[in-house]
Amino acid sequence: MFEPISKIKSSKEKKFFIEKLNIYSRFIELIAKSLKIEFKKKNFEINKNTFLKLKELNILNSNFDKENDQLKSMIKQDLYFKFVSAVNFNIQYKEPIGNLLDKLNLLKVTKTKVNKRFNIVDFFCGAGGLSCGFSQEDFKIVLANDHDEECIETYKFNHPEISKNKIILEDIKKIISKLDKLLVDKVDVVVGGPPCQGFSNVNQQRVIDDPRNKLYKYFIQAVKKINPKIVVMENVKGMYPYADQIKKDFEDISYIANYEVLVSDQFGVAQKRPRLIFIAIRKDIVNKKKIIIKDIFNEIKTNSKSIKKHILRDALEYIKPLKSPRIKNMTEIDDEKTGKKIDLNAYKGNENSYLKLINQNRKINFTFNHKARYASDVNYEIFSKLGQGEDGTSEKVQHVFPYKHRNHIFKDKYFRLNENKPSRTITAHLRMDCLSHIHPTQARTITPREAARIQSFPDDYFFLGPYLKTYMQIGNAVPPIMAKHIAKVIKKYLK
């Protein structure tokens, strides 16, 4: 979870380190609350056991006095006292805590042998939606990369079984030349979703040579160098007119490829999210096994017919109701009414097929990133007036929007979700204002946790970084449950 204090140099590294200290401390507070044991924030004396625990957490190495002084000078006194008190609480109540800290006990996770059958590389991994789904289907991630620091921190936190030196914050162009050194084991599958903003449905100038779309070319180069058996590439539906060109690019490196648009709600996800999926298989394997890729897509779609379909209400059940902060700059502050970054989970294994699905039938004690967003007086009034399925063109908000061409201006800006249908697509644009995803029954927009549930992330999938950046991470991800169903069929062709 932690980097050694001696290795923290940049301001961003410092911010992530402080965030993790707060996460650890908050975890302990909640565990104490659930165990009905008083958590004393003044128990900050450092003894031999404390030092050993800090070494186990990878914060201190050997030069205790110097590194402890470094820790004190880096963070505020209140946080230092709270964190050390949390560490001492963990030591004192080790037995009753048991496995409640498994999410943070990364040392235990990394020492546990991971018995997974197939090796996978995830390029442009983002927060880890594809990896999350594939890892649930017997795939071992041996390398992942992204250029976004928040995404990488989130990925590391949620994939502690992967060595940190195999989760790389770097441009793929620089990674290609190092792949021989980075990959020791044979790779079965390469997956990824290269950013292609030039293909977005909101972009009217979609050209294959748009500089923003060149990253998929580097993805192809990486595939050529790794030479996996199978490739799964996902992208926006807007890429469809150029899919044949991409198919040819795969053929140029000796792969047979095909593509289909798959929609996430067909796989039990509580949202309609169309994605263009490419499956490419090495020519020698295709010829040897007589594989027809269309048959793979048909199997994926046939399997989906028996899957229980879910609606938005399923995703929003058993989660604490919240109110929007009415004062600016309160979003990062934990509050009982507006939400907390870490809180006890209201879902305790109750009968809800969707939550059972995304949580893999696990009882999860905590819920993360469930914090409401600031609402101005105007927006709050709109939230209160709009009915489910209504948008900014509704007569109910005409007095708020006294514009002649209201239909054109506000049609897409405001939308109240309908709890009786799958959600509209969760997008990275939510980081801007979230007004296109107003909660169906509460006068606020959806929280990052609610967006993550709609995307089918488990409740204990923690998104690190600034509040607004969590929306970006969630919106850019592939729904894990959709990825899982693709992986389930793909692995049959690896045997």
User: Structural class, please?
Assistant: alpha/beta
CATH class of the largest domain: Alpha Beta
Mean pLDDT over the residues: 89
- Helical residues, percent: 25-40%
Query: What distance separates the N and C termini?
Result: 35 Å
Shape: globular
Give an overview of the whole structure.
The chain has 495 residues and is an alpha/beta fold. Helix 2 packs across helix 4, helix 7 (129-135) crosses helix 21 and helix 14 packs across helix 21. The protein has helices at residues 11-35, 48-56, 64-74, 77-92, 94-97, 106-111, 129-135, 149-158, 172-175, 179-182, 215-226, 243-251, 283-289, 293-304, 312-316, 353-358, 377-385, 406-410, 448-455, 467-475, 480-490; strands at residues 118-123, 139-146, 167-169, 189-192, 230-236, 255-263, 274-282, 339-344, 366-371. It has 21 helices and nine strands. The strands form two sheets. A seven-stranded mixed β-sheet has the order 3-2-1-4-5-7-6, sandwiched between helices. It has a two-stranded antiparallel sheet with strand order 8-9. The chain is 38% helix and 12% strand. It folds into three domains: 5-108, no CATH class; 111-308 and 480-493, Vaccinia Virus protein VP39 (Rossmann fold, 3-Layer(aba) Sandwich); 312-468, DNA Methylase, Chain A, domain 2, CATH 3.90.120.
Task: Note the main attributes of this structure.
globular; alpha/beta; 9 strands; 495 residues; Rossmann fold; single chain; two-stranded antiparallel ribbon; DNA Methylase, Chain A, domain 2; 12% strand; 38% helix
